[in-house]
Design goal:
heterodimer; A: mainly alpha; two-stranded antiparallel ribbon; 23 helices; 2 strands; B: mainly alpha; 2 domains; two-stranded antiparallel sheet; 62% helix
Chain lengths: 502, 185
């Protein structure tokens, strides 16, 4: 415990510097804005803003990027409640009861409880990270290459199970991501792979380029084809502060949501997407009168919103302790860290404690800031929603172009991004979900590296993956997951969970 | 898959899921490119994996999934092909390409509005005057943010061909900076 408080103190001393406070605030502000605006996701934003962080020191850069990430999670709920459009995919569940509350003139209460629930969840999430980081890091040091390989396989399988689409298609798209990760000079033999004579990609394709193409450009294309005209709430937002009865009804859902989301966020394969869904289902099951759900039940806002924010926080753990990004946004954080010369993994906490604890402390401060930003500024966010999409998307495109150009000062990168935009558009049109590709891409390189190391150590003995108890256990779990995913009975209930959101 | 096509198109007697067939063929195409691109690289041995092992194995797997999808389209009833937009992708992606080719020689001051306006054409509801104003504002904002505040090395003005504008531009810049300083005080 003394360790923990010492570490948090160290973190506070870093996070409370004027520069880092400002960056944290900026990140939260931009993140909330992004979350509010439909059609600009956190993935595209972080890519766009990578160049902005070049001039900063690594701690400040990561604090700001993290702020954008959880700010966006937070802001997504505002549009979900007011406009019935989830600003972020994770806010889908909030539309169910949140928008109903708004229709009943209780928009303010819904926004208020979402903000308060998220704040509590964020605080607990930060504490979970702080207390689990040490043990997880020590555990990570026990991992050999074979175990790492097995863990990544498990993570990818989890991503398959949790993805929206069909199991077959998701596995295929992850494999395409891994294939893309092999582009460039092979580090061990120095041979060109899949570069087709282009020197520009000899070092491999930048993760920012794929992310921007597939999530920036392709997302705009997708939005252009759907009707962007929105019905903005004309009704009064009303009192923001929930009444005592509201608090009473929400207290347990917030606690349960926080716990559920916090646990799911730890999973290495994008478990965080499941948090809000799981919480909503749980609250509906526990409720005395489940028929209230979908008609403006406050528990249906409080629980999922807390779960969402808690899992957003704890999904940093696999990245910071094991060096394995659990979802696409964390994959971009790896890119950001690499730009600043930081290798994510268990060594961060020992070698750069001020970076590690500074980032964690900033998350708590950021959550406090979000509470302050979100509630009084709701009127401002609503006004942003009135900017027509026809003016917004060319601006987004311009920002994307400047951002991607500035990552390497290369016009070729912009052209390559256009290529990936088209590729992403094609994937969507052929019925593939693009997010798992990015995860496969980022894990692909690590996967190959660890596979090679493990086989060199074992002298080419493939059984090494099954002889080591850790890797054998992880692989068995992965196999079990695939089995579960294809079993008809469980597939059905999984589809139902997702269906209730559509 | 609910996303690509809400309305199910008429499904022929032979192909029961056109979307799966197209998706499968797409995967097979990716696999062929992946395998062909690493054809000459060696697989190596298990104890010493060569450069070709990972891409080839993965390409074969991608191809296998492509085949499964393509074959199941004859058996399992599924979605029709989604409709592809032409105007949106064409104009938006050309806008980005224009930016790529214009930014080095001409600078952001030309490339920015150019990309903005071409992109804006992708949406039918765009109004000309409004878009021009927005393009100028967005470009100036980006110039201020990326060039002046963050000093990224992105070229802003076409110094090479419009050298004679250099003097007035610098004077304007100094004036704006002075103004900003005065306000911030």
């Amino acid at each position: 415990m003394i360790d923990l408080s010492d570490n948090l103190l160290l973190g506070m001393s870093v996070a409370l510097s004027l520069q880092n406070l400002t960056l944290c605030f900026l990140g939260c502000l931009i993140g909330t804005l992004v979350g509010v605006l439909p059609g600009v996701g956190p993935i595209a934003t972080i890519t766009m803003l990578l160049p902005i962080t070049f001039g900063l020191d690594p701690v400040g850069a990561l604090i700001m990027l993290a702020g954008i990430y959880y700010g966006a999670q937070y802001g997504g709920s505002t549009t979900a409640i007011l406009v019935n459009i989830p600003g972020e995919a994770s806010a889908v569940v909030t539309t169910l009861d949140g928008h109903q509350m708004a229709k009943q003139g209780r928009a303010g209460v819904a926004l208020g409880i979402a903000a308060i629930g998220s704040f509590i969840a964020g605080c607990v999430g930060t504490l979970i990270i702080a207390s689990l980081a040490g043990p997880m890091t020590r555990m990570a040091l026990l991992f050999g290459p074979a175990d790492y390989f097995a863990l990544m396989v498990l993570g990818l399988m989890l991503a398959v199970v949790l993805a929206h689409g069909s199991v077959r298609r998701t596995i295929a798209i992850i494999l395409v991501g891994i294939l893309l990760s092999t582009v460039g000079v092979d580090l061990e033999t120095g041979q060109d792979r899949l570069t087709f004579g282009w020197n520009e990609i000899a070092d491999g394709i930048d993760v920012a380029i794929i992310a921007m193409g597939m999530f920036g450009f392709a997302e705009i294309l997708r939005n252009l084809e759907t009707d962007q005209s929105q019905e903005i709430m004309k009704a009064r937002i009303g009192n923001l502060l929930p009444s005592r009865a509201d608090f009473g009804q929400s207290a347990m859902p917030i606690a349960r949501g926080t716990l559920l989301g916090g646990l799911l966020g730890l999973l290495p394969g994008n478990g965080s997407v499941l948090g809000p869904f799981a919480s909503y289902t749980l609250e509906k099951k526990l409720a005395k009168d489940p028929s209230r759900f979908g008609k403006g039940a406050i528990e249906g806002v409080a629980g999922p919103e807390s779960a969402n924010n808690a899992s957003a926080q704890t999904s940093f753990i696999p990245l910071l302790t094991l060096g394995i990004p659990p979802n696409a946004v964390m994959a971009l954080m790896v890119g950001a860290m690499t730009i600043h010369g930081i290798v994510p993994g268990p060594q961060i906490i020992t070698k750069q404690p001020e970076l590690f604890w500074g980032m964690i402390a900033s998350m708590w401060i950021g959550n406090l800031m979000l509470l302050v930003i979100n509630l009084p500024l709701i009127g401002l966010w609503v006004r942003f929603l009135k900017v027509p999409y026809r003016l917004m998307f060319p601006s987004i495109l311009l920002f994307c172009c400047i951002g991607i150009y500035s990552v390497n000062n290369s016009a070729f990168d912009v052209v390559l991004t256009v290529g990936f935009g088209l590729f992403g558009y094609a994937l969507i049109k052929f019925g593939f979900e693009p997010a798992p590709l990015l995860l496969g891409f980022v894990l692909g390189r690590l996967l190959e590296e660890k596979l090679r190391q493990a086989l060199v150590i074992s002298g080419g003995e493939f059984m090494t993956f099954l002889n080591r108890p850790l890797s054998a256990g992880l692989l068995a779990l992965a196999a079990l997951l695939v089995l579960i995913a294809v079993l008809p009975a469980i597939r059905k209930s999984r589809d139902e969970v997702f269906q209730s959101a559509d | 898959m609910s996303d690509p096509s809400p309305e199910r198109e008429r499904v022929g007697p032979l192909i029961r899921s056109p979307l799966d067939l197209a998706g499968g063929l797409f995967l097979i195409a990716i696999a062929v490119v992946g395998y062909a691109g690493t054809f000459s690289l060696s697989l190596g041995q298990l104890s010493d994996i060569g450069a070709g092992m990972m891409p080839k194995v993965v390409a074969v797997l991608v191809g296998a999934f492509g085949c499964i999808l393509a074959l199941q389209s004859f058996v399992v009833l599924g979605d029709g092909l989604a409709r592809w937009g032409v105007r949106g992708p064409l104009l938006l992606l050309s806008a980005a390409l224009l930016f790529a080719f214009a930014v080095r020689p001409l600078g952001l001051v030309i490339a920015g509005p150019l990309a903005f306006l071409v992109a804006a054409l992708a949406d039918r509801s765009t109004r000309f005057v409004e878009a021009v104003i927005a393009a100028i504002v967005a470009t100036l904002f980006c110039g201020l943010l990326f060039k002046e505040l963050l000093s990224l090395p992105i070229p802003f003005d076409p110094r090479d061909i419009l050298g004679f504008l250099h003097g007035p531009y610098d004077a304007l810049k100094v004036a704006i900076k002075g103004l900003v300083m005065a306000i911030s005080r």
